[in-house]
Structure formats: structure tokens, C-alpha cells
Amino acid sequence: MMCRRYANSFIGLFVTGAVVRVVKLSGLRKAVAERLGYSFRNSLPVALMTEYDAGPLMMAYHGAREKFGEKSPSITAYVVKCVASALTVHSEFNANIEGDEIRMLDEVNIAVAVDTPRGLYAPTIRNVDKKTVVEVEAELRALVDKAVKGTITLNELAGHGFTVSNLGHLGVTYFTPIINPPDIAILGVGAIKNTGDGYRGYLTLVFDHRATDGAPAARFLAEIKHQLESVAEG
């Protein structure tokens, strides 16, 4: 049995540890915490994962770099464009949930999670289905620039029916992003790896089980995979 003196010392390790510094949640960080906390508490998130042949995507990406130079589309822009195509097939995932109502949207507006020195933003690219991948990239860059400068408006952060979050450039393979309210689903984009047998990419679809079920979500994820494996240079 541990004697009282050592027991008290052991407990003290957790009670009297030195505090290096305290950072109070405020401003954007507090807003993000409240918004995503609301989503986590009120949704029923389920994650589906898959991988895809990223060879066509990488071929299109490198071909566009030679063609468009500095204005060439990023991997994120290609993914957003492919998701838009998948949403035209499975329009039930282009939706918001408010209380006990699911609102299907007639515009394909996709938010993109962006890491900036000011914190996490998710600006909305509107009518993605009607834009080329080059136009999607140009709009994304403009919105990111506004987010970095702190000039982005609430309107530019609203109106989305789906969200894409890409951590692949940081080496992450799979992750489960929190659904961006009031959307019913979000796509987590993982790294693209050269396996020796070709390029492989990794995806995670997180959906709200209140709004849809596993089988429709699996079909939607399969369509995103199909679009990515069929991507053209743009």
C-alpha cells in the first residue's frame, strides 16, 4: 500500500503543476469553438473512409501547372470541383439541417476549410458546378487572401451546403473533420502517396445520421471517388 506521504506527493503532481501560460478563448477562436462544439453536440456524425486512384488527378494537376503556371489549380480546387459534380448526382447531400427540417439547396455552394494566421476560416465558393477548375482556384485564392487580411465578410462565409477540408499537404492520411453547421456532411481529404504502384489518395466522408443513412452516404462517397478518378485537366 502506498503510504500517505507518497500518495499526497503523487496527487500533487497533477494539482500543483506549473502553468506556463493561459490563453483565453476569444474572438475567432471562441467563435470556432462554439460553432463546432454546437455541431458536435447536436449532430450524429458517422465517418466513411475510402481510397482512390489519384493518378489521373496528379496528371491533371501537373499538366495544368505547365499550361497555367502560377494560376494553375491546386489539388483542393480539383477536389472541390469533383465534389460539385458528385453533388449534382446526389443532390440530397447539398443540404442544411435546421432543427427538424432538412433544406435541400438549389445552388452548389461549397465551403473550404482554410488555415490562416488568424485561425480557421471556411469561405464559400458559389455555383461551383458552373465554374471551371481554374475559376474555382481563382475564387479560392481571393477568399483566402481576404481571410488572411481579416477583410472577409460574413456573407462570404455563409450560404454553403457542403464543406471540404484538406489536410493532405500536411501528411495526414485519414481524419474525421467536424461537420460545418448547418451542413449535413463534410469531406476530409488526406494525403496523396506514391505507393510504387501509382498514386493513391485517401478520403473521409463524415455525415449527420439524422439527415441521411449509411448506404446513401456510401454511394455519394463512391461518386466522389469516381469523379476524382476521372478528372480532366480543366
TrEMBL record:
GO MF entries: acetyltransferase activity; lipoic acid binding
Domain of life: Archaea
SUPFAM superfamilies linked to this entry: CoA-dependent acyltransferases (SSF52777)
Annotated Gene Ontology cellular component terms: cytoplasm
Cofactor(s) needed: (R)-lipoate
Keywords: Acyltransferase, Transferase
Family annotation (InterPro entries): 2-oxoacid_DH_actylTfrase, 2-oxoacid_DH_E2_comp, CAT-like_dom_sf
Residue span, 2-oxoacid dehydrogenase acyltransferase catalytic domain: 21-231
The protein's name: 2-oxo acid dehydrogenase subunit E2
Species whose genome carries this gene: Caldiarchaeum subterraneum
